[in-house]
Amino acid sequence: WLWLSLRYRSLTLPLIASPSVPLSGMVGVEKSRVLSLASAASEQWFAPWVLIDAGTEQLQEAMRRMQASGIGFPVVGKPDIGCRGAGVKCLNDEQALQRYLSECPAGAPLMLQALSPWEPEAGVFYRRFPGESQGEVFSLALKYSPYVLGDGKRTLGELVADDPRAGGLPALYQSRHRQRWNDVLAEGEVLRLVFSVSHSKGAIFRDGSEYITAALRERLDQVFDDLPGYFYGRLDIKFADIERLMQGRDFQIIEINGASSEALHIWDRHARLGGALRALLDQYRSLFEIGARNRAR
């Protein structure tokens, strides 16, 4: 970073890599700020969402806005400013929404987003240099939720403890499943441990670079054509199946992360340290170059 700062004569060029949002999304930028850049021309590629302030008195207003946007239950609640899956919950009914609004800090801006009809999720990193008509998908990672499989003998707590990965985060999962922690799961019963597919919550990432195609890149070129002043970001995408994602169809963007986001393929268990460092250094280089082109503009 210091070398690039000397080369480009600025420590802060990455903060204008995507000038349409504050600090290029490096810190503390509202999720809605990025998503609201899109117009009706590309709305089919985004999961519908509305904003609401927390507070029990806001329930009816939340219901009104959801109805106006065609959003029903279940709905995903998330802080408008947040990261690492903090505060993200799937709300199945009006009572769950009321509890969620009352539990959040009063007046805090919250996003209510339609639950995608598709389960698979990927982190897709896209960048485009100002003045160019085509971008690049330089990273694609598949994201898997942690879960346990019942055997009719062990309790949920025992299944978590015996799992080599989930057993490292027992307190995290116990706080989410207190009511069932001592229940014996039926044989074959699958229990998803967390809703938000975040690395900090035990999610598993797999390098999916083999699924990057020209068709997917062309579709994202169209999406970013509709995001003026946004050149660099990781998209969290829900998709129907990998073949259709490769064809650039049947997917929904649920978030776009900014300049501080990282290529998720580096967290694949087979990734090597050298490869991960090269990927991060490549991200820094492109952030400075995009910032330099925007400075020149």
Please characterize this protein's 3D structure.
The chain has nine helices and eleven strands. The chain has helices at 2-8, 31-35, 59-68, 94-103, 156-162, 170-176, 214-225, 242-246, 273-296; strands at residues 49-53, 75-79, 89-91, 109-114, 121-127, 136-144, 147-149, 190-192, 204-207, 232-239, 251-257. It has a five-stranded antiparallel β-sheet. Strand 5 and strand 6 form a beta hairpin. The chain is globular. The two termini are 22 Å apart.
In N-to-C order, the SSE pattern is HHEHEEHEEEEHHEEHEHEH
- Helix/strand-derived class? alpha+beta
Residue windows where pLDDT falls under 50 for at least 5 positions = none
Question: Kindly state the mean pLDDT as a whole number?
Answer: 91
Q: Determine Rg (CA atoms, Å).
A: 20 Å
> Helix tally?
9
Spatial strand sequence of the major β-sheet: 9-6-5-10-11
Binned strand content: 15-25%
The total strand number stands at 11
**Could you describe the largest sheet, including whether it forms a barrel?**
5 strands, antiparallel
First CA to last CA: what distance? 22 Å
The percentage helix is 25-40%
The geometry reads as globular
In short:
The protein is α+β, with helices and mostly antiparallel strands and 297 residues long.
Give the helix/strand layout.
Layout: H1 2-8, H2 31-35, E1 49-53, H3 59-68, E2 75-79, E3 89-91, H4 94-103, E4 109-114, E5 121-127, E6 136-144, E7 147-149, H5 156-162, H6 170-176, E8 190-192, E9 204-207, H7 214-225, E10 232-239, H8 242-246, E11 251-257, H9 273-296
Antiparallel strand pairs: 1-4, 2-3, 2-4, 5-6, 5-10, 6-9, 7-8, 10-11
